UniProtKB/TrEMBL annotation:
Protein name (record): Autotransporter-associated beta strand protein
Keyword rRNA-binding among UniProt keywords: no
Gene Ontology CC annotation, any one: outer membrane-bounded periplasmic space
Organism listed in the record: Paraburkholderia bannensis
Record keywords: Signal
Domain Phosphatidic acid phosphatase type 2/haloperoxidase: 228-337
Taxonomy of the source species: Bacteria, Pseudomonadati, Pseudomonadota, Betaproteobacteria, Burkholderiales
GO MF annotations in UniProt: acid phosphatase activity
Endpoints of the signal sequence: 1-22
The keyword Signal is annotated on this UniProt entry: yes
Amino acid sequence: MSASRTRFPLRLALLSSVAALAACGGGNNNNLTTAATPAPPADPGFVDAAPIPDVPAFVDNIATNQRGDARYATLATNAGVRVVARFLDLWQPLTLLVDAGVSASANGSFPAVTQSTWTGLPNDGTPGGTILNSTVLGANVQYVVNATTNRTQAQADAAYYDDRRGKGYSVTDGMGPLTSVWRAAAQQTTSITSIPSNATTTLYNDSGNNTGVGSSTNTSFGQVVDLLNTMGNNASTEPAKRFYKYARPFRWSTSVVVDPTLVPAISTTPATDGGFISGHEAEAMRDAMTMAYLVPERFQEMASRGLELGENRILAGMHSPLDVIGGRMFALAATAANLYDPANASLKSAAYTQAHNTLMQLTSTSATTFAAYAHSGTSTTDRFADYATNKSEFARRMTFGFPQIESTEAPPVVPKGAEVLLETRFPYLSADQRRVVLKTTEIASGYPVMDDAEGWGRLNMFAAADGYGVFNGNVSVSMDASKGGFNAVDTWRNDISGTGKLTLQGSGTLKLAGNNTFSGGSQVSGGVLEADSANAFGRGDVYVGGNGGVAVAASGTPVTVNGKFTQLANTTLELSLDGNGGGRLRVGGQLTVAGGTLHVKFVNGYTPKAGDTLDLIDGSGGAMQFTTINVDGFKATPVYTNTGVSVKLSAS
């Protein structure tokens, strides 16, 4: 479990009736001041947006990426070639000279292209071109040399399985506790169940069914399999490979040590065996992101599995980091395009429903317990169980340590249709809001290949699954708990910056778990806003009013409100005390309590006793008068002072 999932929340809840909280309690009429009730945080007056780039959109042109046309693919005619076009900053393939109008000689051959000197490049008919950036491309191959010469046996084994198995079968283990039931429901099979002793001399191909059995015979899970297979439409990497003609790393350097068990898999026709882009990574990431769409409860884990398979291609010696980066970019574009396609709308909806219904049935869970089950593994049983490790590894695999070679200040760019990738992860956000989530979480500019004109290269799907990264303008969220899943409860774990304002409406629970610095304030007009970190509310005011409520707490530390804290009637402030400071509220600006309920809970084994006085809220400056104070297991007498609120406990 991640740390953010074990924190004790300070909950701010707007409730239609204070009677909704049943506990022993008491109150008094001590009102220290008659200062005016503050107004809600100011309205910024605008809503952030992520405009669609004014370039040909991959989601509109995916059909141009035809495997059968691979030999003739060009930048102008093929969307798959175009999406990774920034590779041309580093490498000029012979194909580009042909596209530019270089004429063939009388015998039909094209002019020779002079290769820049690169020690170890064999003259064996390897797809050719000219090195334009020897520093980056040299580092690209050296990375593989280092990785393969320091490879552990466990890494070699993982590389073998990810090479020889169907990619759809391989990535399924990113489902953690759901892996076995997923494979059973999909009726997935593989023939690669071990590494044969003669694998160094004999090539073994997977005779399993990769993604599983479709709906023609699999009535309970077949639409899930159908959707996975549909994601392969127009998703061949062959046109890009043929266009870029960039060799695999072991052909650039004899110091690359191909995994001995994969030597039989080396192509005997180098001229048609390009390394850029990685087909294995493209297919694996495509399958992983589709599974993340279908089971967003495992979104980040599946995205991590997709990148892990890409790194295993490097450890195998079969691909370079840039090959894998290109494959990841292409996969995101192809997945989004097929999910975005109106022709697939019914299938993706049916597959999502079928995935949840079947998996919940097989795991004996419900809509309220499924997410917990999906994360019930430990680091021993689920290698993606540790959130912090996944986050760190995902960030590393996004760039593989390449330095930024261009401006690091270019504005974020979000491709047309990319928001569909977050459609099930944030069902309570609009398509425009999901685009802003992608915009505010993508990585900085300047990395090789990744600054494509549409923006696929900079998308950080792990960070995007943690919600907004920046609040610009008004961020209004409306959740409906009756719909279950993420509509009922969700957590945003990014460190949110910006000058914008958050407004929560509806009936769901939104948890903020980052080290936030946004300054526009938080307003709760419905539902539950929960602070799962000390600085969850950023640096602005917190205003709890309307027809809803708030709940707050932090693990081991008080929750801080740097600005004003205001609570109105028919709302609830819920404090979960752990006995070590966690759950207390510290208000730096004016503290105003104009009615409502205070509910005190005890967590983490903390058990106070009758006669204890508990300090709850630090703050001053305004009226302080709760209508009701409920303390679990006790009667409580409130004590209002010029420095805050405490309660004295007595037996209930």
